[in-house]
Amino acid sequence: MVTPEEIAEAARLIRNGQLVAFPTETVYGLGANAFDRSAVRRIFELKGRPQTSPLIVHVASIEMAKSLVECWPEQAETLARKHWPGPLTLVLPKRARIPEEVTAGLATVGVRAPAHPAALELIRAAGVPIAAPSANRFTELSPTTAEHVRRAFGNAVLVLDGGPTEVGIESTVVSLAGPEPLLLRPGMIPFEDIPRVTAVDAAAHPSPGMHPRHYSPRTRLVLVDGPELPGGDGAYVWWNRPAKAAKSVQMPSNARGYAARLYDTLHALDSEDWPWIAVERPPSTPEWAGIQDRLERASQ
After folding, report:
1. SS3 label, residue 294
2. What is the pLDDT of residues 79-134, one digit of tens each?
3. Half-sphere exposure (CA, 13 Å, Cβ side) for 50?
4. CA distance 292 to 295
5. In angstroms, rounded to a whole number, what is the distance separating the alpha carbons of residues 289 and 153?
6. Residue 151 and residue 227 share a domain
7. Tally of domains in the chain
8. Which of 33, 51, 45 is nearest to 104 (CA)?
9. E-strand spans in the chain?
């Protein structure tokens, strides 16, 4: 439970140009004042994140989101009212007040209202939108607990401990910046009727999470379709089909339960120094698309 005193201190740090790690319903974020260029640059420095990967700006309301974008189409209003607060990021043309450091130099910005009380309280107390990627080293496993953040950064940032996250993987990202909606990153809100962007030709990515290798443990991760696992001892993560392994972890067979446990399971196995982690490939149905995306990138 995050206390009001902790929120007040974190908000003071944000206003003073410092970084704060905070819980959302998806993963923990590493946040800075979205209007502070220097603070935003420190996010990239601490994470080792390339400048080509934009940040998501977290807001406390639809009204705050509207103040950051040039236009707010009817579809944005419909989606925000249906899914906010929640794990949906909308990409729209940005206003000039959003620094290019936040958006990788792009003319668009991703905005979302997180569904975690501590995150919303922090944004309101700081009085500014908060730019935040996941609170981890770039391409490594995202954090779903405060302890995961501390392992990555030690005492480099204040960490608000809001307990384990509920959704467990990053938000769905939908672009409304063009003539037709585009799915830039799948998540736990499925959009079967929106075309998905899977390849990026431009230097700057239109959304976070589009780097070929991402969400990766240090241990080699292998996706498997059957009972054949890599040779030697290793760890096996399965939801439907058991197989013989030195360590076996059974996951929930439903997508929401699986997503909520995925990163925490991989963090735990990664700390045990196995030569490999084999993961049973998830179903190829819409509700599993976000999980499949994370595992495909982690196995690169």
Report:
1. helix
2. 999 999 999 999 999 999 999 999 999 999 999 999 999 999 999 999 999 999 99
3. 12
4. 5
5. 30
6. no
7. 2
8. 51
9. 20-22, 29-33, 56-58, 88-93, 108-112, 130-132, 158-159, 172-175, 182-185, 220-224, 235-238, 247-250, 276-280
- The token pair at 171 is 């938000």
Which amino acid is it at 229? L
DSSP state of 95: P
Q: How far apart are CA 21 and CA 151, in angstroms?
A: 12
Neighbours of 163 (CB within 10 A): 13
**Strand pairing report for 29-33 and 56-58:** unpaired
| CA–CA distance, 150 with 122 (Å, rounded to integer) | 19
On the CB side of 239, CA atoms within 13 Å amount to: 22
CB proximity list for 8: less than 8 A, separation 6 or greater: 125
Same domain, 82 and 14: yes
pTM: 0.96
Residues 165, 99: Cα–Cα separation, whole Å:
29
The CATH number assigned to the domain holding 41 equals 3.90.870.10
Buried b (16+ CB within 10 A) or exposed e, 223-233: ebeeeebeeee
Whether 145 and 244 share a structural domain: no
Query: pLDDT tens across 192-203, in order?
Result: 889 898 767 667
